[in-house]
Amino acid sequence: MRSGLWLGVLAALLLGVTVWAEEGGGKKHGKKGEAKGLLPTVEEIEAKLDPDKLTDDQKTKIVALREDLLKQWADLAAKDEVKKAQEEMDKAKTAEDKDAMRTARAKFKEVTGGFNVKTKFKDGLSKILTEAQVAKLLPPAKHEGKEGGKPEEGKKE
C-alpha cells in the first residue's frame, strides 16, 4: 500500500517537472538567446488592437520585423563585452545602487552601440500600422516632449 502511494507521488512529481520544463522551466531565454517577452508577438499585438484587426500583409511585415530585430539582438547579446555589461547592470540593480546602475547603463549603451530593440520595434510598427492602430497600441508616453521626463523646476504640470 505504501509503495503505491509513493509511486503516485513520484508520478505526480515527474508530471509537474515535465510540464514545467515544457513551459520554459523558469528560463528567461527562448531559442537562440531570445529573451522571452522582449517583443510582443503578432497575436499579442492583435489582441490589444481588437477590434482593429491586422491585415495579412501587416502580420507578415510584423513577423519579419520581429524576427530581424530578435536576430540582431541575439547576435549582439552573444558578444562577451555585452554579456559583461549586462552582468554589471544586473549586479547594480540587485544591489539597488543607483550610481552603479547609471554607470552600468552607460557602459551597456556604449558596447551595444545604442541599439534598443524595443525602440526599433516601435519605430518599425509605426511604419506598418495605420494611424488609428498606432494610437491604440503605442500611446504617447506621459513624459514625451519633456527633457528627462521631469517637469521643469518651479513649474507645476
Output the radius of gyration: 22 Å
Percent range of helical residues = 55-70%
Please identify the structural class as seen in this structure. mainly alpha
- DSSP helix count? 7
Large-scale geometry: elongated
Low-confidence stretches: 5-34, 146-157
The beta-strand count equals 0
Distance between the termini: 72 Å
- Rounded mean pLDDT is 75
Proportion of residues in β-strands:
under 5%
Order of SSEs: HHHHHHH
Main sheet specs: none
Counting structural domains, the number is 1
Written overview of the protein:
The protein is mainly alpha-helical and 157 residues long. It has one domain. 64% of the residues lie in helices and 0% in strands. α3 runs antiparallel to α6 and α4 runs antiparallel to α5. The protein is elongated, with a radius of gyration of 22 Å. The termini are far apart.
How would you briefly describe this protein structure?
The protein is mainly α.
Task: Describe the secondary-structure layout.
Elements (H helix, E strand, L loop, with lengths): L1 H21 L19 H8 L6 H22 L2 H16 L2 H14 L5 H12 L2 H7 L20
Tag the structure with descriptive keywords.
single chain, 7 helices, mainly alpha, elongated
